[in-house]
Recover the amino acids of this structure.
């Protein structure tokens, strides 16, 4: 180094050093930005805050933000991480979805965030929280429960509960003016819980008994747990590590301290604690029956042992030692089934009633179709599985409703290695203007798959994609879209390894409940609009009456 006579560094050298430092720092910063922002060339919305896209993605008002992404930015959009976060991708491109969910699904597991959340809600490692080989093993048990032939055998239980619903609703409107306002979400939540209770886990929650404390407690817990979880989304990154803390007493003590100042977190814990003992009690009854009387003894349990979870417990009991699921895994899967089968279906049914309430012609068309089908049966005889399946108008309306109003807005995946995915719609680089037909998704990228947004993409479904038009299914047939969704290309049930196992159950349940309600009642809308806001699933509230909580009031008249 050149020193001046008094021993200090020459100004020339100082300037050169400073320049080199700036050059190195700039080049490192560029490199850092490039590695942290590998998707800078992809169009995407500017986040509403320096915290990046997370608040926009999860906001309760975010539905239109989601629908707008493919329309404005394309079928792969860059979600900017803000000052400190990494960028993520929002994907609605058919070829990319096919690759992520099916062809290369091994590299796109469920996000650790959601795996952790569902692990906590279900108190263990059920299908919603495990990956890879363990997931495949558990899905083998679960998929065997939900075949069309097995689900069709549950119909008598579905009808029994639906008749209870009809009787309760009749009592609520009997002797009163036509067009009584009834919160249909409450009735349908009770019905969905009772259906999944009896047919799913062989248990009645006494859902139509106003005085049942057991129902109140369980119903309160299951309907509040996801809305509460939505409010805790900032804790999501820590939940997977949190739930693995051992011993359990330490975790529980830490949880009581950590949630003390936070009412939403305390209520979330209380909801989980209220549901778990119900599953444990049911599981123990089945295990005891098996230990004392073998498989035959299960027929003596509630629902004659025909419910889904009793079949799962029996299959697990009969399985080879290496294939058996531990008790806590079966328990977590009991919870997954009840959870999966409850809110999604009841809110879809409530949404359906608001649609037919707004459209008298559609309501009449559906009713005539049902009357015609019933006229071919003996008096008092119910429509069977195939007859319900084959009603074209009812089928078209259910499909269109699930396309337009997916209860699950998006799912969240994380790449475990660098993966190249093909694209149906090329990305035009915001930097060079060039088009690219494939995309390298880097290891560790958060990838959001926009189910609702893909279902409404005008490029995929046509210019009328955002309109509710059941006729599109009558005209086009059931061949579906370019999308890989498991229900005629509709993404609402997802597809691939994590496809909703309850799809056939849900569709049958919806068609059956609607067929009974439409023949017994007519529906009209209330005057105020109902807003469906984002949570982990959707939350309906009457505009201007938001503090009253979630509800779907509809005017009901007995026919
Ligand atoms: C309209 C009704 C329904 C819709 C739209 C729906 C949608 C979905 C979606 C999108 C997933 C994937 C979630 C993810 O990967 O993060 C899923 C998973 C699941 N659903 Fe459904 N679902 C419905 C009804 C049901 C019913 C009735 C049941 C059970 C009886 C059920 C049980 C499950 C279970 C257990 C999973 C977890 C599967 C796994 O992680 O491998 N769902 N559902």
């Amino acid at each position: 180094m050149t020193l001046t006579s008094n021993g200090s560094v020459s100004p020339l050298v100082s300037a050169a050093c400073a320049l080199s430092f700036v050059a190195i720092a700039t080049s490192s910063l560029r490199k850092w930005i490039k590695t942290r922002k590998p998707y800078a060339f992809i169009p995407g919305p500017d986040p509403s805050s320096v915290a990046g896209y997370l608040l926009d993605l999860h906001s309760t008002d975010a539905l239109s933000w989601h629908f707008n992404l493919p329309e404005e930015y394309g079928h792969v959009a860059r979600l900017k991480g803000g000052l400190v976060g990494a960028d993520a991708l929002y994907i609605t491109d058919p070829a990319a979805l096919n690759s992520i969910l099916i062809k290369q699904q091994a590299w796109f597991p469920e996000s650790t965030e959601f795996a952790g959340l569902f692990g906590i809600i279900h108190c263990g490692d059920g299908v919603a929280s495990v990956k890879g080989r363990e997931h495949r093993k558990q899905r083998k048990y679960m998929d065997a429960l939900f075949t069309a032939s097995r689900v069709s055998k549950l119909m008598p239980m579905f009808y029994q509960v639906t008749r209870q619903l009809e009787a309760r609703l009749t009592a609520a409107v009997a002797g009163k003016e036509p067009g009584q306002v009834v919160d249909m979400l409450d009735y349908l939540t009770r019905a969905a819980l009772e259906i999944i209770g009896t047919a799913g886990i062989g248990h009645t929650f006494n859902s139509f008994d106003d005085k049942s404390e057991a129902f109140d407690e369980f119903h309160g817990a299951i309907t509040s747990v996801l809305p509460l979880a939505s409010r805790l989304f900032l804790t999501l990154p820590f939940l997977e590590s949190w739930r693995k803390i051992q011993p359990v007493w330490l975790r529980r003590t830490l949880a009581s301290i950590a949630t003390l100042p936070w009412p939403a977190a305390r209520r979330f814990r209380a909801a989980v604690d209220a549901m778990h003992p119900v599953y444990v009690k049911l599981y123990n009854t089945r295990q005891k029956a098996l230990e004392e009387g073998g498989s035959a003894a299960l027929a003596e349990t509630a629902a004659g042992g025909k419910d889904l979870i009793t079949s799962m417990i029996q299959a697990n009991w009969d399985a080879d030692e290496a294939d058996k699921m531990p008790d806590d895994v079966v328990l977590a899967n009991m919870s997954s089934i009840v959870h999966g089968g409850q809110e999604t279906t009841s809110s879809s049914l409530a949404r359906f009633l608001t649609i037919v309430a707004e459209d008298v012609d559609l309501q009449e068309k559906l009713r005539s179709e049902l009357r015609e089908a019933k006229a071919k049966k003996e008096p008092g005889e119910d429509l069977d599985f195939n007859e319900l399946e084959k009603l074209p108008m009812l089928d078209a309306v259910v499909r269109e409703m699930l396309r337009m109003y997916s209860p699950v807005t998006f799912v969240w995946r994380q790449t475990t290695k660098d993966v190249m995915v093909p694209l149906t719609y090329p990305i035009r680089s915001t930097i060079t203007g060039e088009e690219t037909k494939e995309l390298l998704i880097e290891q560790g990228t958060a990838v959001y798959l926009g189910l609702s947004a893909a279902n409404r993409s005008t490029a995929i479904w046509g210019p009328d994609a955002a309109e509710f038009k059941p006729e599109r299914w009558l005209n086009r047939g059931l061949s579906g879209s370019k999308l890989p969704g498991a229900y005629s290309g509709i993404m609402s049930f997802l597809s691939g390894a994590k496809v909703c196992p309850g799809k056939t159950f849900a569709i049958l349940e919806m068609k059956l409940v609607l067929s009974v309600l439409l023949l017994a009642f007519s529906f009209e809308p209330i005057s105020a609009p109902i807003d469906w806001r984002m949570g982990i699933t959707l939350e309906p509230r009457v505009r201007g009456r938001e503090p009253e909580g979630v509800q779907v009031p509809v005017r009901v008249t007995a026919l």
Observations:
- The longest helix spans residues 263-293.
- Residues 1-36 form one domain.
- The pocket of protoporphyrin IX containing FE is lined by residues 110, 114, 127-128, 139, 196, 200, 336-337, 340-341, 344-345, 348, 407-408, 411, 492-494, 498, 500-502, 505-506 (CB under 6 Å).
- The CA atoms of residues 54 and 234 lie 9 Å apart.
